[in-house]
């Protein structure tokens, strides 16, 4: 179940250049490249002729030449040349996907191109903002994308999964507040006078307790940002504390595997390259702990034959709300994708 | 097709300790551990909350703490703690499986716990009896468990598969006797004045012919013991001969893979460690010959599209009887597992 | 979808000897061997008893002894021995497949043995003819067999896939002629005064332009020969030019994988072993380029959910005709294989 009328991250901007890159999103194969002018173009990676993989062909100017029989498609998906014949059948075209490059990532619209709407991008401006520095990566995870958004919306798991880096018992002991606003879900925990988790100590050298904020925001289809702050307890001063955003966008490859695009973007010690590298290493290690849990969970869900298996707790409220939003929007997309029945009488 | 109301070997006793061990039986994931008192506990290895793998969590006292959000289950499967809330929903529990540790193995009851009945254990006392010494192991086999019991119930295959260790032409030339008693099948061959197979020569140094006994006993669901004896021909004297039991319990992982627990337990030369090692090596080699045959057979059965493929011979009688017993009991279990229909009128 | 009443290449003749060889054709497992008289015999590779793999057993004289319980089948598939019993049930037999060894290859008839008809062999005599020398091999390809015959029937792909060996732009620029004759398809291109492709230069040292012929012939079920000729432009003289046949037979393993048997057989410089080796190397490299394209195409077809996906062009005419022939014959086979309904009244 996927929302089709939505933007998904297909790649980091610097992955896409004057070459052909294949990637699968919501079960569809895409071929991506930059035009000579530097714009990103995204087409279906199945030749309209005999379904060869266009990404194994050649980029010729701003067009893709299929590597099998040489049929050529421009960056709008229109066929511009068929070897050995002049007439081009109108159906000879491949699907073009709307694309936006923004905040360091390439965003692809998987639904009706006429509905593509830049205002539906999640607000991830901190990935690329003066005074902020982002470090991050992309992980392939063999689990449904909603298991990843569940994970990010309930940070009590940090206590149990990530005790070596960002978790400690303060999180689970602090009640969560949450609210739904339109297609967004907000979850927050403010932990007063609490010991800093190991990574916070390393990053900012806290010696005593801190006030710690986690402000989580879900934006459809599968974007979760976390505004994380830590200050010496009682002293609300950024100079003595830290603040970063953990910015996460999950792209479904198909129903059982996902790409996990992530950054940590911070507004302090921007010139400290060692710190940047250390944060990247520690967060990557942290996410790999999640991957192990999530891939085992995926396997146990797939093999489960019970009728109504999950029992929820209070901490699930945010994740449940986000799933409701996704289900509602995905069902609306599916209805619109149905052919309209001719009305009789 | 599995008998659920039955005991299956889940592990050797010495595999289970103060740590969490995962194993799959009849398609269900189990987590196993020893309590502080040394008892073995077996729970479903799917957290009732979001189906994380409990075996990736922590053993805390006699309880399992899920490694994802920290929900804790005691060794009866009851939830004892939910982080961040006091109220525990009654449905928050995981299935507990009855378990018996006996004769060096851990036996798990996969059906209705109220029906768990120790008297249904197979009689495998020779695995752990004064005056006897057992050596053995466990093999994973990519074949249905009944292909393994078929194999053990028709030892004519020793002639063709195991000519280097325990087989020779005497077996296939000697008629088999068999009888069914309740849920047991007994098959036996007594070979008089026959050349010893290679392994018997190595073990006991026979120079001339022997009288050789094979007394096979099938006990449901998938247990086969073989009382094997060899004496110098005409001399029924253990001091000059050998006797051992080959004890085998097949545990279905699912419909197409199995765990094969096995021992050879003997009542002679108990102090001879080299002999113990040699027997273990030779029998393991022998069983790996079976594994190759059985895995190929499994593949050919799965790809077969013919309607009624198997043609039976006289030597199959024991295996066919055992399959009838399994089918009858498995169907009875399936009927009992159906929800009772409300009678109308 | 397979034509069953047809000959498929199962092996090179020199692969089959006094040992048992397994191979799968149209989803069926075969065991092959030579009798003491040197004839090739082909049986179903599933023992009629318990479906063990006969190819893991032993060849005893002209019979196959199953490696599991020793039941023996002669080279007609008739059971000749059951260990431990004298009576042989009439159903205890395995299917025999008609076989012809011709033109260096072993041909097996996968349909009704009574319909086996040597005149339905493709005319591949150039593989084994005085004055001609064949070099070749066999590749496993993870793609449906018809993707391979499509490939061979539209050589415009040489321009794009094989520019380093046998392709150049002349092919795609020259119109193709084609005609259907019964169950055969003929496609040809005659390219006048055209630059030779790289491999032709290497093989024959052409310095100027050539006249190049490609005469393609499809014979059911999946045989394609290409009569390829090149002469100095305007000079129709074999002494100064080259001619070879590319002979190809595709054997479906199942619906998604195939064996690709191929030769290049030439009528010039027969004693030049270096040339033979060079041609073999270059053609193998060329076919491995096809394999990469075809395996990606197979994956994209399997994952495609669109209703009517392929758009055809003029160059597809030959391949489309060949597919129509295969479909017609396969459907006729399927109808004949149905049990006849009793006519009522
Ligand atoms: S498949 Fe792309 S041109 Fe033929
Ligand atoms: S899945 Fe076990 S506590 Fe959440
Ligand atoms: S399976 Fe071949 S003889 Fe039994």
TrEMBL record, chains A, B, C:
CDD domains on file: RHO_alpha_C_DMO-like
GO molecular function (one): dioxygenase activity
Name this polypeptide is given: Aromatic ring-hydroxylating dioxygenase subunit alpha
Keyword terms: 2Fe-2S, Dioxygenase, Iron, Iron-sulfur, Metal-binding, Oxidoreductase
Keyword Disulfide bond attached: no
PROSITE patterns named in the record: RIESKE
Limits of the Rieske domain: 7-108
Record organism: Pusillimonas minor
Record's keyword annotation contains NAD: no
Phylogenetic lineage: Bacteria, Pseudomonadati, Pseudomonadota, Betaproteobacteria, Burkholderiales
Pfam families referenced in this protein's UniProt entry, alphabetically: Rieske, VanA_C
